[in-house]
UniProtKB/TrEMBL annotation:
Organism: Chryseobacterium geocarposphaerae
Subunit structure: Monomer.
Record's keyword annotation contains Heme: no
The protein, known as: Beta-galactosidase
Cofactor(s) needed for function: Ca(2+)
Length: 934
């Protein structure tokens, strides 16, 4: 006899990629007033119906604003098989925005459902025609008739849409069945389940079997069932279960069978994990007896083309990206996600906060109780869910706190995600957007601190910016439990009323670490390094380096001997090579060190004795599952050595001369001429050849701090080279030297004492002449003083773009910005190539006009000029008020201005145009036999 399990018949499509066509009519906005076709599941706005609202429109437009209160009518005809006669049949809606009235064959299926993000169902057993056509009619109202539902769900800082946006299906079961189960499976192997029974009449036995990942039976138990039973509890133990954590997502399967004597009447399965959650007040959050810290992020269910109607591929991509950032947790802001997301969190390993909606206002108790039941009964058996979150930032109805445990046998902890101090709940303070110093203070208090939102990532601020300081604070503090960054993705919506452009609603929704289609920003990589569970602090390789690297294990459950470590010794491509990247000279594997979770030790790379002959060392750590954790790169060659190699390639020498007129000194070599102003010592013009071809690189070096006044300028000869020596009244000095190999050399020095946003020199070059850039240094993304992490040393190249972080066209990496640790940089321009190198270490380069945070004006302010060579760059704050007014230092030590005291000296080498490098740059000519003739 085959086991009878639930049979499913989809009425809609299964997800946003697989839809079905229904009939549709809408009472307002686009395409209103006549019957059309619509794809289901979807939002009707994305199908060209109705009109758009952002949830904060009521704030933007004031008291006279009214939301578009559209209602849509759906119709769909379907038939059900005769074999379903006598079965229990439900219609299930996985999500519909917002009030939903359902009719079958003209009869109301039940009371109107209010609440957009929750699965609800109606029993249709007595309303269906078998073997014949049935008519489903659904009326969906965007705004709820219940004010508290609108307050909780729609007056919010996100896009508010309409329609049946998750799947709709029929489920048929025998009359005697299991309606749902709640499992508690603890780390000691104890298994308990509440089994909710329906229609029990003749069955007399209930059996539970547990299978491991290899489908081997590891435990079972059975109990007798009496007529009329609606709830049975079963409990037994499994020996030495493999435990579930975000690092070890071990899953088991429970098979529940209802039997009449030995005949199976109904069967259902649930996946689950053995794990124990404890809140030890005044101490921390424990999983399986081990204290854990959340490396988390807030995630909206979102895709630009389809809004909150998504699919399992999007869910999988998001979990993989979150894990790629070395995060271990996600908050489902601000509503329960679709089911596939939670299944993937279970199987790949993420700690989840599952949240009842309530953006800043709460549901009424009457509505809230129903929605808590729907949320918990759907999600209760997911081991990934560590907390239930009862609303956000004031959207907590305290009367609902006790409701969760009615359906959750494991009685998970409940949190309140809030934005005001003094609202700790269950021994956990989740206060949002505290700065570094107030965080420090909270961590010295009585409660565990786990901010459910922090480092708001609008535009390029927040996210990875300042995160290193916050993370060290939480990692090293007894009561620090980590936290959840705001937010995962820019909520950009493809506007079907604006030619399918993507709209982030000005400054309201570009809050992501990734773009709308998951384009990675610089913060993505900074977070990846900061949160790496293999923590390596080595900054540079010294001459006495012996191949041994200090490492800290920041896993909670994994020994580093379960990871793999591979090293490479490499040589970089040169400025005039057509390629980027490096060449691998040698590679090998290091022995994985035995370092227990949270302990420190060393990795011995066992490098060959000639390692110093390479230009850099690359180390990649890979986890137990074969996924890369992080790759570090350390330079072995100094910039002085790298610049000498470059100069060696320029083997041809030409005589150098100087001429002067009333206003200029002009240095000449071969066909090139460089003119310098006698009043200020700055580069004024460049001529590349006898035809007078110009290069518009000029007006530098302007010192970016303080005003300079010339005190003396003179020209002199040094061997075969000509020098122009410039002094300024405040002690600043510059020397221009034209070398016989065609390199124009600039030496400058300046002294500073105090706090500065930036330090160094600038030049001008027309941005619209630039085609691309190539450089040896950290990359490929731009940096800020407090977000240097995540960029590695290599030869990078980038085609010019005008991306401003968080806004269309989302082409990353951004072309403009501050770039770190530059050895040489080459601009490819409409006028030819400009190659610039430095002899000293640690130079930042600033490229063109950009800013970190968008407001009335860009922030922070930029140095003068538009190409800068800097010894110090500014930190970036976040959009929230306490930082935008140059109070970035509240975000921690890394976010303070540069404390500078001393004299700074640097040498820059400029080469304009293409050198004659022999064969490498010879023009390609076609063989004669291929030349077309008349």
């Amino acid at each position: 006899m085959h086991a009878q399990s639930k049979e499913i018949q989809f009425l809609s499509g299964t997800d946003s990629e697989h839809t079905k066509e229904w009939d549709f009519w809408i009472n307002g906005g686009r395409k209103s007033g006549s019957w059309n076709k619509i794809q289901v599941p979807s939002h009707w706005e994305q199908q060209g119906f109705g009109s758009y609202n952002y949830g904060r429109d009521y704030v933007t437009y004031g008291k006279n604003f009214k939301f578009n209160d559209e209602a849509g009518l759906y119709k769909y005809k379907f038939s059900v098989p005769n074999s379903w006669k006598g079965k229990s049949i439900n219609i299930v809606f996985e999500g519909s925005m917002t009030d939903t009235e359902v009719k079958i064959n003209g009869q109301l299926a039940g009371e109107i459902h209010r609440g957009a993000f929750y699965e609800f169902k109606y029993d249709l057993s007595d309303k269906l025609k078998f073997g014949k056509e049935n008519i489903l009619e659904v009326k969906v109202s965007k705004m709820s008739a219940d004010k508290s539902v609108n307050n909780a769900e729609r007056l919010a800082d996100y896009w508010v849409l309409g329609g049946v946006f998750r799947a709709v299906y029929l489920e048929a079961t025998p009359k005697e069945n299991i309606s749902w189960t709640a499992i508690e499976a603890k780390a000691d192997g104890t298994f308990r389940s509440n089994i909710n029974l329906k229609g029990v009449n003749s069955v007399n036995n209930l059996k539970v079997e547990i299978f491991d990942a290899k489908n081997i039976l590891v435990g079972e138990s059975q109990i007798t069932v009496q007529k009329g039973d609606t709830l049975k509890e079963i409990r037994f133990s499994v020996k030495n279960p493999k435990l579930w954590t975000a690092e070890t997502p071990n899953l088991y399967k429970a098979k529940f069978s209802l039997n009449k004597n030995r005949k199976n009447i109904f069967q259902t399965e649930e996946k689950f994990g053995f794990r124990t959650i404890e809140i030890r007040k005044g101490d921390g959050i424990y999983i399986n007896g081990i204290k854990i810290k959340m490396k988390g992020i807030n995630r909206h269910v979102w895709w630009p083309e389809t809004g909150r109607a998504v699919n399992k591929n999007i869910d999988l991509m998001d979990v993989q990206l979150i894990k790629e950032m070395n995060m271990n947790a996600v908050r489902c802001s601000h509503y329960p996600p679709n089911k596939s997301f939670l299944k993937i969190c279970d199987s790949l390993g993420l700690y989840v906060l599952d949240e009842l909606a309530g953006w800043q206002k709460k549901y009424s108790t009457e509505i809230g109780k129903k929605l808590v039941r729907e949320m918990v009964t759907r999600d209760v058996n997911h081991p990934s869910i560590i907390f239930w979150s009862n609303g956000n930032e004031g959207g907590h109805n305290f009367d609902l706190d006790a409701e969760f445990a009615k359906y959750d046998l494991s009685n998970r902890p409940i949190i309140h995600a809030h934005h005001k101090p003094g609202n700790a709940f269950n021994g956990i303070d989740c206060n949002h957007y505290e700065d570094y110093y107030s965080t420090k203070k909270i961590l010295e208090g009585d409660n565990i601190y786990m901010p459910t939102e922090f480092l708001h990532a609008q535009d390029d601020g927040g996210g990875g910016t300042s995160l290193a300081d916050y993370w060290e604070l939480h990692w090293n503090s007894k009561k620090g439990a980590g936290g959840f960054l705001w937010a995962f993705a820019d909520e950009g919506l493809m506007r079907t009323d604006f030619n399918n452009q993507i709209d982030v609603n000005a400054i309201n929704a570009p809050d992501g670490i990734v773009g709308p289609h998951r384009e990675k920003e610089g913060s993505f990589y900074a977070i990846r390094e900061i949160y790496s569970p293999v923590k390596i602090s080595l900054k540079m390789i010294s001459n006495d380096f012996n191949g041994i690297i200090s490492v800290e294990n920041r896993y909670h459950f994994t020994n580093l001997n379960e990871c793999q470590f591979e090293w490479k010794l490499v040589k970089f491509k040169t400025p005039f090579s057509s390629e980027s990247g490096f060449e691998v000279i040698q590679k090998g594997k290091a022995e994985s060190p035995n370092i227990k979770p949270t302990e420190k030790g060393n990795i011995n790379l066992n490098l060959p004795s000639n390692w110093k002959e390479s230009e850099a060392l690359v180390l990649t750590a890979t986890d137990f599952f074969g996924k890369e954790i992080y790759t570090w790169t350390w330079k072995i060659s100094s910039n002085d050595e790298i610049s000498k190699q470059f100069q060696k390639t320029l083997s041809k020498e030409f005589p150098v001369s100087v001429v002067e007129n009333d206003s200029l000194f002009i240095l000449k070599s071969e066909e090139k001429e460089f003119s310098f102003g006698k009043k200020d010592g700055l580069l004024k013009s460049i001529i590349l050849d006898k035809k007078g071809k110009k290069m518009t690189f000029r007006n530098g070096p302007v010192f970016v701090n303080g005003k300079t006044e010339l005190s003396s300028i003179k020209s002199l000869t040094e061997g075969q080279n000509q020098i122009i020596k410039v002094s300024y009244s405040d002690g600043k000095k510059i020397n221009w030297k034209l070398n016989s190999n065609g390199i124009l050399e600039l030496n400058y020095e300046y002294s500073l004492s105090g706090d500065y946003a930036f330090a160094g020199v600038s030049f001008d070059y027309p941005e619209n002449y630039v085609i691309s850039t190539k450089w040896l240094g950290k990359g490929p993304y731009h940096v800020w003083k407090n977000r240097l992490q995540g960029q590695t040393y290599n030869v990078w190249q980038n085609l010019k773009n005008s991306t401003r972080t968080g806004f269309s066209p989302w082409i990353y990496p951004e072309f403009k910005g501050y770039f770190d640790d530059i050895s040489w940089l080459q601009l490819d321009t409409a006028e030819g190539k400009i190659t610039i190198g430095t002899k000293e270490e640690k130079m930042f380069v600033r490229l063109f006009e950009f800013y970190g945070i968008y407001g009335a004006e860009g922030y922070p302010k930029l140095p003068a000029g538009n190409i800068s060579f800097l010894d110090a760059i500014p930190p970036l704050g976040t959009v929230l008020a306490f930082n935008i007014n140059d109070k970035t230092e509240t975000l921690g030590p890394e976010s303070e201005l540069n404390h500078l005291n001393g004299t700074f000296k640097r040498t820059l080498y400029f080469y304009f145009g293409l050198p004659d490098l022999g064969d490498e740059n010879k023009q390609f000519t076609m063989p004669k036999e291929n030349i077309l003739t008349d």
